[in-house]
Structures are given as C-alpha cells and as structure tokens.
C-alpha cells in the first residue's frame, strides 16, 4: 500500500487538469464529484499509506518517481519522502482539505466559477502535498511556488472586484520577498553541500559546520525569511488580513490550515541547520513572540469577523515559531495540527454565518444567532474554546500549554518568551470570546436569510470533534504523561531538554495559564454581554491606540512610505523611460542617415550613371595605387 | 607592313569609350542616351578585336559577335520601351521618369 | 598610317555625335564613326567582323533608331529642347570624371609592357570554327537572347486600344 504514496499528490493534480480543461462544460455535480472526490480519494490513500507506514515500523520511505533535471552537480528528482513529520502534514492536508471541499460544494454552489474554484483548490492541495513530501529542496520550492500561485488565484477569485485583485497582488508580492530570500538560501546551501537533497544536507550538516558557524547562521536566516513570508510573520505579515477578500473555504484551507504553515514545515524540516545556528533559532523565537503579541492586540480591535480570525492565525503561527525558537519541534507540529482543526472550523463557521446573513461581514451588525443557527453556534463555540485554550476539554489547551511550558522550562526558553506567550494567551482568550459574544449573543441586528445545509454543517461537526478530541494524544506530565504524538515524532525531531529541577513548577504554570485563560473569557463576557457600555468607554478613551491596533500597527503605512511611494515616484520620474531614450536615439540616428541617403535616389537616370562611373574610378584607383 | 603597338588600339578604344561616357552623363534625351550607349559598346568591341589580333586568335572576334548580338537585342527592346515612355509621359526627358525616388 | 587616319576620323565623328542638337544629324555622324571603326577592324586582320560591323551596327541598329525617331514624330521643339538643356556648365562634372577615368586607362596602358601587333589575318573560317567549336554555348545563348529581344520588343511596342465598357463610353465624353 505504501507504494501508492505517489498517487496522493497526483490525484488532485489530475482532477485539477480535468477541471481546467473541460470544467466549464461539466455540470456542477460532476465538477464537485471530481474536485472533492479526488481529495477524498487522497485522504483514503493517506490513511492506508499511513497505516502501512506505521505498522511497518520503518523510519522513512522514499519513492523516486522520475529524474527531473541534471545540471552540473545538481541532480534533481521528483522524489517523495515519507516520514513521521510529512505523515502528520499530509494527514492534515488531505483530511481537512477534504472536509473543506465538501463544504465548498454548498458554499460555492451559486457561483458561476464553480469548476474553476475546484480546479484551483485541487491544484493548491497538490502543490502543498508536493511541498511536504518533497525529498529535495528544489521540489519543495516547486511546491512552495505552486501554493503561492494558487493563493494568488484563489484570493483574487472574484476578480471582477478590483480590491480582490489588489489583495491577491499584495499577498503574492509580499510572499515573493520571502521566496527570494529562501531562493538565495537554497543557492548558498548548494554551494556548501553541492546537493539539495534534504536528507543528505541534514546528515552532512553537523559534519561540515560547527555550532554557530557563520554560513549556517546566514542560511538559517535566509530560510527564515522565506518562512516568514509564507507564514505571515513579522515583518511580512501585512498580506494575510487583506487576503480575507477570498472566499471563506479558501481562507480556511490556505490561510489557516495549510499554506501559512509551510514556513513551520520548512523550519522544522531543516531543524538541524537551526540547531547549528543558535542565533537564527533565537530570532525564530523572537519573531514568533513579537508577532503573536502584535497580531493579538490587533485582533482585539477588528470588527470584520474574518479579519479577527486572520489576525488570530498570525498570532497562533507566532506560537509555533516561538515553540521552534526554543527547540520544541514536536510541540510546534502538534500545535500546527490542532490549530489546523480549530482554525479551519472557525473559518468555515464564519463563512457559514456570513453566508446565512447574506454577506454581512461586520460583527457588530450580527447578533442573536445563538438560537437562529444552533449547529453553527455550538461548533463555533467549540472552535473558539479550543483557540482560547480552555483547560482540560479542548485540544487547544494541550497544545498551547505544551508550548507555554517549554517556553518557561525548556533549555533555550527564557522569561521573556514565556511572558509574551502568556500575555498572548490572555489576549487570545479575550478577543476570541469577544468575537463569540458579539456575533452570537445579544439581539439580532440582521435577519437570517439562508440556513446552511448538510454539506456545511457536517464538516463543521467533524472538525469540532477533532478540536475537542485531538488533544488527547499528547497529555503533559501532570495529567498522565501520554506522549503518543511526541513519541511518534521523536526519532525525527529531538526532544527538548529541560532546565534543571524545573519539573516541579509544571503544575503552577498550568494553573496560572488556565486561570488566566478563564479570566480572559470572563473579562470578555463582562465587556460585551453584561455591560457593553464599559467597552465603549474604553474604546473612546483609548481611541488613538485602538485605531493604531486596528490598522495592524500601521505596518501598511510604513511599507507604503518606505517602498511604495519611492517606487511610484521613481516610475513617474522615469515616465519617458531613460533607457528607452537610448533606443529611440538609435532609431533617430538611423532615420537621419536614411533621410540623408534617400536624397541620392532621385530617380534621375544620369545621377545613377554618374554613381557607376564614380564607383568604377574608385575601384580602379584602389586596385592600381593602393598596394595590397 | 605597318607594325603598330597594341597600346594605340586600346587607347583608341579608351578614348571612344570616354566620349560615349561623357555623352551619357550629359544628355537628357533618352534617345541620345541610347546612342551614347551604342558608342560605348562599340568601343568595348574594338578593344576585344585589338586583343584578339594581338594574340592572333579568333576569340576576340567571337567576343565581338556576342557583344554585337547583345547590342542589337538591347536596342530593339530599349526602343520599344522608349515608345512606351513617350506614350505615357508625352516627353523624351529622362528626368520625367523619376517616380521611383525617395 | 592608315590606322591613325581612321582613328582620327572615328574620334572626330564621335565628338560630332555627342554635340549635335538634332537626333538625325547625330545618327548620321554615328554611321561615319562606325564605318571608320570597321576600317580599323579590317586593318587589324579581322575582315569578317568588319563586315559584320557595317551590316549590323551601322546598317541595322542605327536604321532601327532612325525608324523609331520617325515613328515618334518629333517636331522642331525637340531640337529646341536640346538647345535648352545643353549649357556650358553641364560639361564640367562629367568631363572631369571621364578625364580621370581616361587618365587611369592611359596609366594602365603606359605602365604595361609594350607589345607589337603582328599582321596575321584571322579570317571568317577560323571564326566560324571557333564559334561552332568551343563557343557553341555562346551561340545558343545568343539565340535565346535574340528570341527574348524579339518577344520583348513586340510586346512592349504594341499600342493597345483602351477598351472601355459601352456604358461608360458616354460618360467619357
């Protein structure tokens, strides 16, 4: 069964091809069948392959499909490498992807670009699978670019509205900056190792570099640049809130569950390089910590439902980066998996709410949906609880708690990381439940026009279940120490060494985080349900700060000033295109000579004869008097 | 029997050729131009005969016959063209046929 | 001696050709020039070509030109035109060029070795053998050339009546 691994990315690719070429002629049922069916088949295959892989007890499985190209030292193949890390990722991608595809069948039913949507979505899933299954960095880069392309296509899916096109462009350009850094990193990796095969690099790296080698640090920073772009961390995070212009399934799949975690995958996959470059690893953590705070505070002020979730995604990926920064690789992957579940759930539920209220995005104009849309309410509530990491019952608690614990107690953890994570947890709880209370409680300000059907609610229910139950595969020491997940990943990813004598504080830390999370929920409850006037007062008294956080800490304005304005100015100055003038000059010189020489072609016969005579004289003179 | 140097013959041919050349360059009338070309062809033929006589071979005369044939064909076609030009342009001025300029 | 006389006559006649205003006068002088050149041919030991020169060049080509001139039916104004177009100034440029060219020719002649002519006569039999021997291809090509000349001259010389559709004839008036 495991030799069917190559089918997992191929099936979505084939269905994307079919839908691209003949999709417009197919009925929506067939298009949906092809589109969602291919991912469903891929999910089934993943389960079969996974079962085979786990029961065989092998550490890794490599399948070389074909030789791609060979250029000098570089020999690139289309090879798929399955180990525990990529197993987790393909499970999440295909499974969550399948649920989102089912959801999209109903969500995009009325849209005339139905088959185009599924084509893009399938192409995306294929690219993402290639990314995580890639055996060498070139193939990974192929998948990387593929997901970037599909992200652009899907954000700007409703392209007839200009602002969607702008948002798609912004996303693509900003991630491009990161991609360039990553490409330079790949080039440097090649110059050091003369191969881009991941396993070769990882095995040779400790032999070539000592810890703290400058080359390793530079390469690690460059790869971090790529990861930062794709995962929307500081300083390249400005594209994600605007990417909410795309349809909700797109936001769920790409910008919550999978593409934005490509950066996490990259860093985790190349973890040996980061272990050899402590400075870079430290900066991974710092970036994660700062980002989670920046995004968390921004989420507090948003009124668009999807933008809250976008900032929340940025913040949660900040947690993953923070975990990687302290060396807690499996904790980061664990949080990735759980985050995929509850964030996809939240986005899908938000999409259902928006669709039910006939495309109303503003939270403050929703309300009272608790009774009107019960299934969505309960699933949303579960997702929000998982996000806020409510203790014991939600999966989010276990994953986030592990990160907090390792930030405090891990060998590379320090107080600042822990405090940042803790503050972030409180802020997360506040803004999450602010979102829940405003949207679902209170009086209904917009009527429900459309109750979502089965295809929307069933994926929500499944994801809600996973958001609750998914955490039980990794319980911390104090609660039973059931380390199924990290044991699974441990051959691949080193576990975190703890500081000496710090295990005893684990209980305290857990208690503190649980209490703070609950306190955040209660705080939100007071502000938004019990006494809304207090929140209005707070908002008006801190209006400047509120607006600053609302605008995403003014990063957009900063980049506009630093990059966009000079570029526009330069292009306006160069309107006549200085370089073009050179070529125009060439043309003008030629035209001048032409007009001069044309006068010799007067049509008068005698002049032509004279020309012949002059030529004859010249030739004879030269042949007679100029000695060769 | 007079023995004359070859250069004289060739010089004569050269002078005749040059005279024909001047005439071509000066005249505006097409027919005069044609006549001048005939002078030049004749001069060239003379040069060939002189050369053939110098080597006492028939090749020079053969060449002259070819030139003669060519001149005859050229004159007949040229005169037919002159007729057409006169018919269209109503003049024998060669400068009037300057439409292919610029 | 006779050579020099004939050559002087040829040169003088040619100069008269190129300075006449009247076309027929020029052509007559041209005939004289050709006859002088035929005499020179005869003296060089090429009797066949001399006869050919008289018959074809002076006899056919010049006569052809005369016929065409008569067909064009030019009146006095052509002579007037020539008078108008001729001026002192136009001799300068061509004169200089041609003198330069002649000078180069003379230079070549002077700097080459002096060879004397012998007086052998190459008669028509030798020419005929040469033509139908090694130069047979040239003969064929000349035939083709003459054919082309005939066809071309016939086609180009035709005066076609313009055919106008009878409905349009009225509007032409």
Quick description:
Chain A is mostly helical and 628 residues long. Chain A has helices at 7-22, 28-56, 84-107, 114-133, 137-155, 162-193, 198-208, 214-230, 239-242, 248-257, 262-269, 271-275, 278-299, 305-325, 329-356, 369-372, 374-388, 395-409, 415-440, 454-469, 484-489, 506-530, 532-541, 543-550, 555-573, 578-598, 605-625, and strands at 60-71, 74-83.
Commentary on this structure:
The complex is a heterotrimer of chains A (628), B (102) and C (173). Among the domains of chain A are: 328-541, no CATH class; 577-625. Chain A contains 27 helices and two strands. Chain A has helices spanning 7-22, 28-56, 84-107, 114-133, 137-155, 162-193, 198-208, 214-230, 239-242, 248-257, 262-269, 271-275, 278-299, 305-325, 329-356, 369-372, 374-388, 395-409, 415-440, 454-469, 484-489, 506-530, 532-541, 543-550, 555-573, 578-598, 605-625, and strands at 60-71, 74-83. The radius of gyration of chain A is 30 Å and the shape is globular. Chain B is elongated. Chain C has one domain: Four Helix Bundle (Hemerythrin (Met), subunit A). Chain C is built from eight helices and no strands.
